[in-house]
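Researcher: We plan to redesign the surface later, but first we want a full-length starting point. Tokens attached.
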């Protein structure tokens, strides 16, 4: 075992031990820790923002793309939102101990399926420092410990955030090690963490394809992926165009660096001549580059020709692909073949067409007449999220409290033996 692996193992082992204490702590104590963590984040605002300013300066000096810099940035408003998310999670119902179902057998055995914490959750993520606190808050509320490994570009910010959160844990009488941020930027820390089967119970990667592949290849425990967000908005022939325009603009432009931002708009040929020139003006006003198919190109001044790769790309910036389609079937085929099964929307006043789209598009979140930007733990009422799972097993879509639990079967008898 090399020195780095030994350090990762020691930190994870301490977090595992702390996780057991969190799992047994009453809900009121975990909630008190969350509120104390929120207070500590506000109290430590100056130190946190100073650390973030150092990370931002370093990121710009390295030539990091503006979309990545935006993901990294904290300001007083964003930090307050992070603190408020802790309080929101504290106010949510506690899933731990919930009876999922119960029944009796003819032999008198009583079986209860009860929700319990997973244990120690490892979360590996890039750029966004708010993930540090969101993940810690959700893991704490659901009775889990967590080991966090953020991107090197946000190390100072993440360390400051984790220190404030740990202070809140200790103020409530819980071990600060229950939220452990790895202070290593070495890439070898990822496979080291993934090797700790029996210590780490599940690992959640949030980031680009390279990170997802690295974690999946090295992990010896279950992996819940937060994969790319190649999201679509499909404008059906029966769409209300006055309603459609602001939805498209919001889905693309409100925060283009988010994984739930739209990357492609598909437009039925029947409404393309009316919609696309108007959409071109709206996007130009927001300095959004349009990459269009040949039919859309003729209707959108200032657009450039899209490539096949554009339609597969998560741009994470003010770049939008536009394609004219013949109808619902072509739109569904496009989404299913080129999308990432994250979040996709249909805009239409035709309920039958909407139901067909919602049924046929196999994405974690499908929308009818609403922006894809709502794929978010807070917007779904979860308080926050660990990530958006594009997997099909255990968790799918925004991962909130229930997705951070598993279950056990409690079986009660009165002397029964099996014949």
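Model: Full-length starting sequence:
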């Amino acid at each position: 075992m090399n020195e780095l692996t030994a350090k990762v193992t020691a930190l994870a082992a301490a977090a595992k031990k702390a996780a057991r204490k969190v799992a047994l702590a009453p809900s009121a104590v975990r909630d008190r820790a969350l509120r104390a963590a929120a207070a500590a984040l506000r109290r430590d605002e100056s130190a946190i923002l100073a650390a973030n300013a150092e990370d931002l300066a370093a990121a710009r000096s390295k030539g990091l793309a503006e979309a990545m810099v935006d993901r990294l940035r904290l300001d007083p408003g964003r930090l307050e939102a992070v603190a408020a998310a802790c309080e929101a999670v504290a106010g949510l119902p506690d899933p731990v101990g919930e009876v999922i179902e119960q029944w009796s057998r003819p032999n008198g055995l009583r079986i209860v399926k009860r929700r319990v914490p997973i244990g120690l959750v490892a979360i590996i993520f890039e750029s966004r420092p708010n993930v540090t606190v969101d993940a810690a808050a959700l893991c704490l509320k659901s009775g889990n410990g967590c080991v966090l490994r953020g991107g090197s570009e946000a190390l100072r910010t993440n360390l400051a955030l984790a220190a404030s959160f740990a202070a809140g844990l200790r103020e409530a009488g819980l071990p600060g090690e229950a939220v452990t941020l790895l202070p290593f930027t070495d890439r070898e820390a990822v496979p080291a963490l993934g090797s700790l089967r029996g210590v780490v119970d599940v690992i959640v990667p949030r980031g680009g394809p390279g990170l997802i592949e690295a974690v999946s290849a090295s992990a010896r425990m279950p992996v819940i992926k937060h994969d790319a967000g190649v999201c679509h908005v499909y404008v059906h022939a029966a769409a209300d165009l006055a309603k459609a325009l602001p939805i498209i603009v919001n889905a693309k432009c409100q925060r283009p660096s988010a994984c739930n931002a739209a990357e492609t708009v598909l437009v039925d040929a029947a409404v393309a001549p009316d919609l696309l020139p108007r959409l071109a003006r709206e996007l130009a006003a927001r300095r959004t580059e349009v990459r269009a198919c040949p039919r859309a190109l003729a209707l959108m001044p200032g657009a450039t020709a899209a490539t096949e790769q554009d339609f597969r790309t998560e741009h994470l910036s003010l770049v939008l692909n536009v394609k004219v389609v013949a109808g619902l079937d072509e739109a569904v085929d496009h989404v299913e073949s080129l999308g990432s099964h994250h979040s996709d929307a249909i805009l239409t006043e035709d309920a039958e067409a909407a139901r067909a789209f919602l049924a046929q598009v196999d994405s974690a979140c499908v929308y009818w007449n609403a922006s894809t930007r709502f794929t978010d733990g807070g917007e779904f009422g979860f308080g926050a999220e660990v990530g958006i799972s594009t997997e099909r097993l255990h968790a799918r879509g925004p991962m909130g409290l229930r997705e951070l639990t598993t279950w056990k079967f409690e079986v009660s008898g009165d002397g029964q033996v099996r014949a």
